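Morning F.,

Quick status update on the modeling queue. The single chain you submitted on Monday has been processed. Sequence for confirmation:
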Amino acid sequence: MKFLTFNSLKMSFLSSLVFSFSLNASINSDVVKDALLQKYSLNYSDKNQIALLKDETLKYGPKSVEALMEVMKNGKYPDKNRWVATFLLGQIVGDKSAPFLVKFFKHPNWVLRMASLKTMLALKQKNYGPNYSALLADNSFIVRSQALENIRLLNITSSAPEVWAMLYDKKNYYQPRMNGKEFKSKRSNIIKSVISTVGDLKFEEARSPLLKMIQKDRYNDIFNEMDQSLTKITGRKSPNGELKIKRMFWSKVAQNTIIN
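Structure tokens below.
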């Protein structure tokens, strides 16, 4: 009978140990995924329950990633939980989650578009300007607003032309009605954000149009935003005082008059 040497026995034991560890790791991951998916399928009305769900997910770390991705992709899970899953995926995976998150910019559910936008902002992902810009024309007001916020806070100057174009998008205006009669369309609050953002981005092409707009009464509701944006674009600050004084100042700036 041929006996195994000590070294042979040692190698056999180590191989079995490695195989057992790999198998257990796989089993543990599957157990974690199944357990999390079961919990993410429930409807939670209590903030404390949501907090516990977050804590448990973070406790598992990378092992929770497969479950989080499944929750995001599958419409059978409650929207609130898909929102949570999106943020936690970004928190656990970090920058490497961006290519996956950006795919949800085109998701039919606005909750996923919004959640992925906010997560990308939290991750400070500046290299997705065209993707943010595309959502400036989104059908959802809240998604458009968040895309605009991403561009402003991440200072994505290349998206300035698309931001300016929002002024001409009918979706950013509403039509007042009374007794079946339609009145002149009104600017929504997002227009103020658009004007402020082109200033933050120092969009030079907006200088001339803003200098003309600020002289007209019909833009009085966005006067302050135009005044502040022109200051950022031109480097000139209008004097303190009433609207008339400020208009005179910007009129002279438009005429390239030096003001001391």
